[in-house]
Amino acid sequence: MITLLLPWNYIAEASNRDYINVVNIGARPDGESDSTPAFQRAWSWACNAIRPSTIYVPRGSFLLKQVVFRGPCKNKITFQMDGSTLVAPSSYLSLGNSGYWILFIRLNRLAVYGGTLDARGAGYWSCRRAGKSCILIN
C-alpha cells in the first residue's frame, strides 16, 4: 500500500511547492542508470502545473537517452541544475539519425540554469576523422 501511494505523494508535493526534484521520482545520479523516465515524469508534472514550476537536478551525473520536452505548457518552467551533468548514451549510434539527443519544442517561458551537457561526442568524431560513413547527428 505504501509503495502505491509514493508516486501520488510526489505529485502532490510537486504541485503544492511547484518544485520537482528528479531524484525523488526515480532519477539516479550515477551516470549509468537510465534517468529518462524520471525526467519525463518531472516534465509532465511541471508542464501541466497551474503555477510556475522548477525541475531541480541535484549534483551528480544523470544518463538521459533521446528525449523530447514538448509544450505548450500551462506555465513557466525552470530547469535548475546544481552542479549536475546530463550524460548522453555511450554510443552515438543509439540516437539513430534523429538529429537530436535532447529536444525542447513548442515552448515559451523556459529557463535553464547551471549544469553541464555531456553529449559523449568522442566516438562520433573519431568515426568522422577515420573517414568512415557515420550517422550524422546535427
Describe the structure.
It is a single chain. The strands form 3 sheets. The protein has a 4-stranded parallel beta sheet. The chain is α/β, with parallel strands linked by helices and 138 residues long. The protein has one domain: Single-stranded right-handed beta-helix, Pectin lyase-like (Pectate Lyase C-like). Helices cover 27% and strands 30% of the residues. Its main location: secreted. Belongs to the glycosyl hydrolase 28 family. Pfam families: Glyco_hydro_28.
Fold blueprint:
Layout: H1 2-17, E1 19-21, E2 30-34, H2 36-48, E3 53-57, E4 60-63, E5 67-70, E6 77-81, E7 84-87, E8 102-105, E9 110-113, E10 116-118, H3 122-129
Family: Belongs to the glycosyl hydrolase 28 family.
Subcellular location: Secreted, Cell wall
GO molecular function: polygalacturonase activity
The CATH class, by name, is Mainly Beta
Provide the CATH topology.
Answer: Pectate Lyase C-like
Number of helices: 3
Order of secondary-structure elements: HEEHEEEEEEEEH
Number of domains: 1
Question: What is the number of strand segments?
Answer: 10
Keywords:
138 residues, alpha/beta, Pectate Lyase C-like, 4-stranded parallel β-sheet, 3 helices, 10 strands, disordered N terminus
Structure summary:
Helices cover 27% and strands 30% of the residues. The protein is α/β, with parallel strands linked by helices.
